[in-house]
Amino acid sequence: MEKEPNSPAHTDHLTGLGPDDHLPPGLRTPLRADAFAKPDEEKIEAITGHFRAIMDELGLDLTDDSLAGTPRRVAKMFVQEWFKGLNPEHRPEVRLFENRYEYQQLLVERDITVFSCCEHHFVPIIGKAHVAYLPGKHVVGLSKLNRVVQYYARRPQVQERLTRQVAEHLRHSLGTPDVAVLIEADHLCVMSRGVNDTSSSTLTSEYGGRFQEDAQLRAEFLRQIGK
Ligand SMILES: Nc1nc2c(ncn2[C@@H]2O[C@H](COP(=O)(O)OP(=O)(O)OP(=O)(O)O)[C@@H](O)[C@H]2O)c(=O)[nH]1
Ligand SMILES: [Zn+2]
């Protein structure tokens, strides 16, 4: 029997929480309310069919042994890799440790790899994120900073939203407003089409708490990331 998308059989898959429920509404990635009604495998099946239709429309021979598997490859890539950050199951838990050593200075995690996707053209955005915070009673497990960047990057994005989502998530998880995020990235939509400019890049930043108030602290962060 065919199941309705919202029937109880699917409730295990529904977390009841959207991927961005912890963010202010304006910062959430625009998603339909029923975005998680369908399990990933069903999404992959459906996208495979849609992508096959696109290739077919381009006149490609889908019986060719090199092309035959492409629709499913692309569908898996979208659901399991490029857009995995749309699924709240992949939201990282940010682990904190007591700051027994009373480390009070700037902590910078720099050159975090960013692979994202332009939501206007669906082509890659490739760059680096630099994240900093001032520890209080707690310090964060370093890799969680990379994971938070990856979670928000792995979606259709604009760079401004990505920057603010990461900053807001860290403010929330670390329990401090003293957070800085700077992202530098190349947009393939600017490089490979349209204006075809391969030398420009885009920098976005967000400064909270003491990073906002203290120009010297901001300058120290920028110096440490080589800006
Ligand atoms: N603000 C912002 N714009 C972006 C980002 N990524 C891509 N864009 C821009 O989104 C815009 C979409 O503009 P449109 O005029 O609707 O699209 P288009 O005709 O393909 O534009 P061109 O790229 O100028 O050819 C383009 O100017 C892109 O450069 C981003 O992260 N932030
Ligand atoms: Zn684009």
From TrEMBL:
The record's section on Gene3D superfamilies has: 1.10.286.10, 3.30.1130.10
Look at the named UniProt entry and state the broad enzyme category this protein falls under.
hydrolase
Q: Which residues form a coiled coil?
A: none
Q: Residues in domain GTP cyclohydrolase I?
A: 48-225
Please note every region of biased composition (Basic and acidic residues): 1-23
Judging by the UniProt lineage, the source's domain of life is Bacteria
Region Disordered: list its residue ranges.
1-31
Q: Name one GO molecular function term.
A: GTP cyclohydrolase I activity
Pathway membership of this protein? Cofactor biosynthesis; 7,8-dihydroneopterin triphosphate biosynthesis; 7,8-dihydroneopterin triphosphate from GTP: step 1/1
Quote a single Gene Ontology cellular component term: cytoplasm
Q: Which UniProt keywords apply?
A: GTP-binding, Hydrolase, Metal-binding, Nucleotide-binding, One-carbon metabolism, Zinc
Q: What is its EC number?
A: 3.5.4.16
**Residues reported to bind Zn(2+):** C118, H121, C189
- Biological process terms in GO annotation: one-carbon metabolic process; tetrahydrobiopterin biosynthetic process; tetrahydrofolate biosynthetic process
Q: Reaction(s) catalyzed by this protein? A: GTP + H2O = 7,8-dihydroneopterin 3'-triphosphate + formate + H(+)
PROSITE patterns linked: GTP_CYCLOHYDROL_1_1, GTP_CYCLOHYDROL_1_2
The record's section on SUPFAM superfamilies has:
Tetrahydrobiopterin biosynthesis enzymes-like (SSF55620)
Q: How does it assemble?
A: Homopolymer.
Family, per the entry? Answer: Belongs to the GTP cyclohydrolase I family.
- What NCBIfam families does the database record attribute to this sequence? folE (TIGR00063), PRK09347.1-1 (NF006824), PRK09347.1-2 (NF006825), PRK09347.1-3 (NF006826)
This chain belongs to which protein, by name? GTP cyclohydrolase 1
Q: Which gene encodes it?
A: folE
